[in-house]
Amino acid sequence: MAIKPTEEQRAACDAFTTGGDLALVAGAGTGKTSTLVLMGAAAGRRRGVYVSFNREIADHAKTVFGPNVECRTAHSFAYRALGRRYADRIQKSAHLPPAETARRLGLRRDLVVNGRVIKVNHQARLVMGMVRRFCYTTAEKVMARHLEPVNGLTPEEQDYLAAVLHPHAARAWEDIQSPQGNLRFEHDHYLKMWALTRPVLPGEFVLLDEAQDTNPVLEEIFLGQRAQRVCVGDPAQQIYEWRFAKDVMSGFPAVQLRLTKSFRFGPAVAEQANRWLEHAGSDLRLAGFEARSSRLAELPEADAVLVRSNNDAVAEIIGYQQLGVPVELCGGGNALRRIAQAAQQLKEGKGSSHAELFLFRTWEEVQEYVEHDRAAADLRTLVKLVDAYGPEAIIQAVDRLAPKGQGRVMVSTVHKAKGREWARVRIGPGFHPPAADHNDVPQPIRLDEARLAYVAVTRASDTLDMEGLSWLNEHEQQLAALADDSGRLTAHLIALPLTKQLAYPGAPVSRFMARHLPGVQAVRDDYLRRAADLPPAVQPLDARSPNWPSLGHVIDYRLRLSLGSSLGEAVPYGVLLVQDENEPLRGTALRGVARKSLGAAGQELLERLAAYQHHPDLTDDDELTRLCYVASQFERVYREGGIEATSLLAGLRHEVTLDGLLARVPTYAVDDAAAQMRLAHPAFEHFWQLPPEKIKCAPVPEGAADLGGADGDFVLDGLLLDCKSTLYPRRIGREEIYQLAGYTLLDYADAFGITRVGFYLSRQGALIDWPLKDFLTLLGAPKPAHKLRQLLKAELWQVGRQCPDLPLRVNGAH
């Protein structure tokens, strides 16, 4: 039967027939598959391929596409091209015992990490897990950070374990690639090997489905095609980041079109979906299907109950079982049973081989770990589950689950429910509003939590019970108050620095940008087009948990010093904050001799950096990087008002010296800075030749005094340059673009002489910039820069006058 397309589907097909790349944002239930089928039919004699990561979806696609479209999973293409050579090995190595894997890896003795014993079998599992996680990524080499989190170890102990196992993982990948290898060979291995060959798919066009949850390996393959590329999905349904899934669509430089008419539910559910889309940062809005009489109502009986976690699922299951209602758990209960059995073994003091609990000897150790260790967040939910119900009750509840298809109600986490729908859905427990910050300012809902709620509410086709999300009304009212110019909350917002204001739509700077510079997507599209062929990012290979903020500061400092400048004001302010023992520092118990000596070390740091500026030849590059790394720790003290848990300065209890701090700087930081400085030569060669008067590092514009502060990275011969030390340049978006605009417009009198703006991507060695006039034109500016500057100044002063207690220039401060 012929498909009658909607206007949006017809527009998508028309765009497809032009032969250009296309990104089709398809909201929940809007007919994305039928639209792709229409595209395939519109292709005429052109042949193409449809690719998905999920076999079930690919098999269904084979039944609906025409003969000119080959429908396969990425694994299927990889197997045909390369994997079949390993067919015998896949079969023969499928059941390789852990002890034999350890022997073949050369792991012959148990490893003791701070008193905890990691047996060779578990070492072998962790090593092979590193290879597996590597295969999910776009990395070209196995890295230490591919080690999965090991419950029971501190971050420092995890880093040590990763460093010990990393060489074994690197050799394991060499073995796996070898035709004579003897380790277990898995399907993901040949997919990764195929991806590294930069394969070309056999078609004149490529259709990628579920693009918001694409495995990074498939993303790499898709973006590498020279054929016409079409990706379709819903970025607001991206909920599998913890499984390495990535949203290809948002960073894909192509024509962007949308499907907004949902055939799954009516207007009442669409309205709820749109509320969550807004909180998820999406400007997509859905229209419900008028022929469906969807409604919001309390549901005494539901077809499905959607919850946040397994903990919440067990509560619902037990509740239904006590009422005698046959209940199913989406995905089955085997994982829950294994967790409960492991907890039971630990309670009996027997230890457990469970992958999440193998390091613990008793349940009390697990409880203590989740109570005191910040790294235990993922395990904390499990402990709450076991402590609330007991392992025996969980096992009993799993044993009493109704067989598949025979339950009267389905209980499911939202992650398991994705891709499914029910007539009557109740949103169950586990969803909570974000806590206010330390200034009692309501925080925006986290994007990942908003996406999860959006997926949850869009599973209902008939009746939706919003019970578990009923707090949204009150939270939205609190957020709305942030936009009230006369309110207490706005006072906190104008006191925020530029970068933090951009996280709040109601903040003065955000509202100005949205009103006067609405074309951020046009800038982003142009940026993504120019960033399409960037080389892979340089990055540390042998560190599991690199301190990314510190590494970003270090390359920024090294570039400033190379230009003959100082590090800026933030580092000295951080040193002063440590030296003022009357000033409490958040997040640390640093006091007494430790704090006094740290302040002295900070002072010596400033003196040695000043000496470098006068006599650079007396300090080698490695020592300079170590000085910069320590300096970054003091800048973080200034920025955060305390010492973070990941800081080099955390946990100090005794006297410390600068040389002692320098010795603690990780080697990977030194190597990383050296690699980025080598990349900087082509882009910065011209800047290094500039006279001093044309170089401004860490420029503070005049308007910084009218809000909570603003300091850029560089103005070099009229180019306002923001340095981004990012592994993922495609993720640069609204806030980063508005930062450039903000730094520019806060320079009210054009004291810096800005004529161009841009980004320097330090891990790729790439410079992407625009003439200021073109940048503002792309942003949709209705007025030239000098008039926008005066408008921004007037708006900030107007808000500032309404907040006389704040230390703003308009109130006589600064």
Could you characterize what this model shows?
- This protein has a 6-stranded parallel β-sheet with strand order 3-2-6-7-1-8. A 6-stranded parallel β-sheet has the order 9-14-13-10-12-11, with helices on both faces. Strands 15-16-17-18-19 form a 5-stranded mixed β-sheet, with helices on both faces.
- Helix 4 packs across helix 9 (187-195), helix 11 runs antiparallel to helix 18 and helix 13 (334-347) packs antiparallel against helix 16.
- It starts with 6 loop residues before the first helix and ends in a 13-residue tail after the last helix.
- By secondary structure, the protein is an alpha/beta fold.
- The protein contains 32 helices and 19 strands.
- It folds into 5 domains: 7-82 and 197-261, Rossmann fold, CATH 3.40.50.300; 85-192, no CATH class; 278-467, no CATH class; 484-532 and 680-814, no CATH class; 544-665, no CATH class.
Label the structural class. alpha/beta
Average of per-residue pLDDT values: 91
SS elements, strand count:
19
Distance between the termini: 72 Å
Which parts are unreliable, with pLDDT below 50 for 5 consecutive residues or more? 485-489
> What is the helix content?
40-55%
Estimated share of beta-strand residues: 5-15%
Radius of gyration from the CA trace? 28 Å
The main β sheet shows up as: 6 strands, parallel
Number of helices: 32
How many structural domains does the protein architecture include?
A: 5
Strand order of the largest sheet: 3-2-6-7-1-8
The shape, in one word, is: globular
